Amino acid sequence: MLCGKIKNSRGVSLLFVVLISSVILAIGAGVSVIVLQETKMVKQVGNSVISFYAADSGIEMQLFDLYKKESHESGYENVSLSNDSVYSVTAECSKYNIGERCVLTPNPDSSCDAPNYCLNSIGTYEKTKRAIEIKY
Description:
This protein has a domain of 91 residues. It is of the alpha+beta class. The protein is rod-shaped. β1 and β2 form a beta hairpin. The protein has 1 helix and 4 strands; from the N terminus they run αββββ. It has a 4-stranded antiparallel beta sheet. It starts with a helix and ends with a strand. The longest helix has 66 residues.
């Protein structure tokens, strides 16, 4: 009678080993997916910083143009930087500043409610975009 019970329990042991192996494999696959997503997110954070600084460069260039140069551009489109990032800037006179100190082409339909100018800059690096808007 004892020999019959031992023979029947051999299949249960094999089934138990297969189930435990499957659970361990599923946990390992889940952890791998999480690690890959976190790695992509860390890379996106780096691209975000580069995009932000590209947008900041656009704002600085526009401010320089408004206050130091002879020609006054009302923006820049797709200016490439040395690290392959790009910025685009738009500048607009305030609706309160048209005709006074505005060095840009006046826009009577301006929605800019700042005392002087509204500047918008979008920095792009790879597929990441960051924007800066200043009103002063």
